[in-house]
């Protein structure tokens, strides 16, 4: 089954102007509607800019199809998993037999994503065991049920809960960063300081990478950029001594958090490990975090294991996730090394470091917002036949004002607008202010529709043809004629194909 739900977004051009997320989503769907060229150009122009903005890493124009875009972070894995769900279409429950083929697809998708083989094996075993014999929820299709099991297992695989930074009970919290060359360690130092500053902590960076003078300069520049002092003694002193003196200074200044940048090597070697051990002994860190590059796939997971075995670490920071279309590192690290991913880097800007949320990551891998809850909610308030009828109407461009009202009423029954927006893929960047604005716009549109005749509601085109009708609607609803004129084009509907 293809459960389709629609959400009418009012004033798409205005909303798109404020939010790149809306611009992109609206532009994806605009092509199905007859909207005035003026609006089309506005939204497409905005979407085009949004696509090149850092908020949309991995989003691309699809060749030859205008502005239709899709998220490519983990895109390969997402596509692979989709083929598994598709194979279950039409089934009425999950059985050992009918999930065999979808499970093969999932296995292949995970291996192609560069997830390590033992992890894939245990994952498949656990999903199969949980999927077969689970009672399919009332109103949820078997393929949805499998998505839910896979989602839950992915969350577990990536550690279940968010793994927060640990802070020292007294004195400065010391975070020691380690990692191979070029993985983004120095950048992470500054990003982390920026993040902690936003939490209200005072920070100091210590430049203990003495082999690459440029690293000290880089840290100094980044420190300035984020407004955090950088302690350095040049390249003559031993890293452990620099770290120790830096910590002493941080203590005297009552700094909350000290972040130590260490030297990277091209590969793991004895000298690097013994130097790290020495620095660790000198500053007794609260957190030892290994910075790994997401693009190295399962190799990143084995590096975390190696560093943990040799120096003892508390977690990992996964950088360059914005360029990772496979996902093997994010999926393998916890399972292989038993150490959690604490943060992920998703771009070069200082803002592009965030805590690692296994649940959000799983949803992203599955290419969905909180789709399952959305489907459950939608099915509570919308009959299957209605949904299919509506889908046909939309596809044949016969969506009228009555359908629109029916949809807004169904949406109102599903809960608050903000909660529903949060469940929709791609809409998680919409702010509360934008949601309030959308709610206001919906009411604005409803007030115009409420004063229309039955015929006008059923055939929006007669409004477009008759100035007299538009004037009457404007007068009765207290709006301007121009606002009524644009009403049909505001009915830009977002499809959610589940
Ligand atoms: N796209 C993207 N680039 C990143 C990310 N993190 C770091 N980079 C870039 O990766 C490059 C290397 O980062 P550095 O911070 O210099 O790496 P390093 O590990 O300190 O390197 P060494 O000092 O040589 O060991 C820089 O160009 C960063 O801007 C990220 O999350 N996404």
Automatic annotation (TrEMBL):
A Pfam family per the record = SRP_SPB
**Which keywords accompany this UniProt record?**
GTP-binding, Hydrolase, Nucleotide-binding, Ribonucleoprotein, RNA-binding, Signal recognition particle
Catalyzed reactions: GTP + H2O = GDP + phosphate + H(+)
GO cellular component, alphabetical, reads: signal recognition particle, endoplasmic reticulum targeting
Describe the location of the SRP54-type proteins GTP-binding domain by residue ranges: 340-353
Listed EC numbers:
3.6.5.4
GO terms under biological process: SRP-dependent cotranslational protein targeting to membrane
Main EC class the enzyme belongs to? hydrolase
Q: Name one GO molecular function term.
A: GTP binding
InterPro entries (alphabetical): AAA+_ATPase, Signal_recog_particl_SRP54_hlx, Signal_recog_particle_SRP54_M, SRP, SRP54, SRP54_GTPase_dom
Which HAMAP family would you find in this protein's record? SRP54 (MF_00306)
Q: Which PANTHER family match?
A: OS11G0153700 PROTEIN, SIGNAL RECOGNITION PARTICLE 54K PROTEIN SRP54
Q: Which family does it belong to?
A: Belongs to the GTP-binding SRP family. SRP54 subfamily.
What is the name attached to this protein's record? Answer: signal-recognition-particle GTPase
Q: Which organism is it from?
A: Zizania palustris
Per the UniProt record, the lineage of the source organism begins with: Eukaryota, Viridiplantae, Streptophyta, Embryophyta, Tracheophyta
